[in-house]
Amino acid sequence: MEDWTTAVKNDRTALERFSDAYQSVHGYLSLVVCAFGILLNSLNVIVLTRRPMINSTNCLLTALAVTDLLTMTGYVPYAGYFYCYASPVPEYGHRLGWIVYLIFHNNFSITAHTVAVWLTVSIAVFRYIVVCGRHALGARLCSQQRAKVAIVAVICATVIACLPNYVMYRPILYDASSTTHPVDGNWSTATRCLVLAPNDSDQTTVSPTTAVAGGAGSDEQLTAANVVGYWFDWNEFVTDTTRTINFWLFGVAMKVIPCVVLTVLSALLVRAMRLADRRRRRLLSQGRRLESDRAGERNRTTAMLVTVVLCFVVTEFPQGVLALLSGFHKHLFLAVYAPLGDVWDILVLVNSAVNFVVYCTMNRRFRYTVIDCFGLRAFHKGLGGVSGFDGAATELGTTQATSRIIQRRLTAMALPATTAGGDGAARGVTLAVDAAVTSGQSTESQQLITL
Fold it and tell me: How far apart are CA 323 and CA 329, in angstroms?
């Protein structure tokens, strides 16, 4: 028996052997990433929902943090049981409750991840409108109310699109002592591959390869597991056509299309950033320091959001391309995509956990709010609260906070006029800013009109 197992192992491809080796550590690595990700996304939600941080962009970022938080929270029991305690193969003899959770986790993670995908697209679209349009028009189109509408629309559309997937699978009894089992042809890989299984895998004969699949269970444990347990299978009403539609919808369309859209929008945003940087340098050379600082801070906020978008594209685009090619070549799916199922999962988890680091390193307003929120001011020498253009220039602050800072600065600029003709000019500038806040207009555009 030992010689037969060794021969089977030697028969596997290098990618399959890598999959087996990585599968033994995937569960523990996923739990570590999820622990940090849950903590960091919780901090994201806390910071982004503080009163000085509430606006349309942060509304979308908060929804993204919540979906990432839900994705990683649901992954913890899955990784803990199927990778650390048991093994993600049917021969283990799983209890019915865990297979029900496996199907639930599959549907839940797909829904949450799809929502995160289209929220990321919404963030890029909102930012493109703000950066490439006129400030007053951008502020009106990308209001906080419209951001909430976009969030609700994305969630509703995703749930409706995922309805067919919710009824694709059912738990079944699995006899490990039998030779033929009605299970999915890709059950020895990660749950994500469960959705992308080929459409002709109704019946699968258990091969020696599956008996030595990696995981927490040893070869001896799997060989001796001649017990009746539970696994999953397609529902009886699921046809080949349904499976094909499911594959192209979730395996290809939900990955490739958003990645293409995000890539195009990122390129346009980078181009707009370069043009804005030239304008900022020109303003600085003309001595218009106030406007130059505002333009520079807007560019930094755009760069932060572009980084978030590109991190998503880097993790999702390879999966989408391989899934697209697998639609035409089934062998590519079985030989390349399926063995990398766990790798795709860990990449998604890492991408879901790093946004807090991106926000802190690339946005001063967010960083200072974290310091103020958690009483870390003593660790930031010389910080006396958020002041200057850290709050005024960035669009991650509220309109009210922005107006107060611009108000103080414009009042100071109007002091010479006060000396010449009383304080009427200073009050006029101040009232113009207050009027912009009351009417919901962009304070930046109103300031330019007033001056």
Answer: 10
Phi, then psi, of 169 in degrees rounded to 5: -120, 155
**What pTM was estimated for this model as a whole?**
0.73
The terminus-to-terminus CA distance of the chain in angstroms comes to: 86
Which residues sit opposite 172 in a β-bridge?
231
In 329-442, which ranges are continuous DSSP H helix? 330-332, 341-353, 355-362, 364-373, 389-392, 399-413, 415-421, 424-439
Between 84 and 218, residue with greater pLDDT: 84
- Helices 96-132 and 289-328 pack at an angle, to 10 degrees, of 140
Torsion angle of the four alpha carbons 20, 23, 24, 26, in this order, in degrees rounded to the nearest 10? 160
CB count within 10 Å of CB 418 equals: 14
Helix (H, G, I), strand (E, B) or coil at 232: strand
The β-bridge relationship of strands 204-205 and 180-181 is: antiparallel
Q: Which pair of structure tokens corresponds to residue 328?
A: 């035409």
Tell me the percentage of the chain whose pLDDT exceeds 70.
Answer: 66
Distance between CA atoms of residues 107 and 115, nearest Å: 12
- The pLDDT tens digits of the residues spanning 290-328 come to 766 666 677 777 888 899 999 999 998 888 888 888 878
- Statement to judge: residues 127 and 263 lie in one domain: yes
Look at residues 318, 346, 365 and tell me which one is the last residue of a structural domain: 365
- For 328-340, write each residue's pLDDT tens digit: 887 888 888 888 9
Structural domain that includes position 422: 398-451
Q: How far is CA 401 from CA 169, 396, 443, in A?
A: 51, 10, 11
- The reported pLDDT for the residue numbered 117 is 93
- Long-range pairs of 429-436 with CB within 8 A, sequence gap ≥ 24: 433/403, 433/406, 433/407, 434/403, 434/407, 436/403
Whether the CB-CB separation of 269 and 133 falls below 8 Å is answered with no
Q: How far apart are CA 12 and CA 262, in angstroms?
A: 37
CATH number for 336? 1.20.1070.10
426 and 294 fall within a common domain:
no
Q: How many domains is the chain partitioned into structurally?
A: 2
Convert the pLDDT of each residue in 173-227 to its tens digit.
987 666 555 444 333 333 333 444 444 443 333 333 333 333 444 444 444 445 6
Mean pLDDT of the chain: 74
Rounded to an integer, what distance in angstroms lies between the CA atom of residue 277 and that of residue 9? 57
Please state, in angstroms and rounded to a whole number, the distance separating the CA atoms of residues 129 and 56: 12
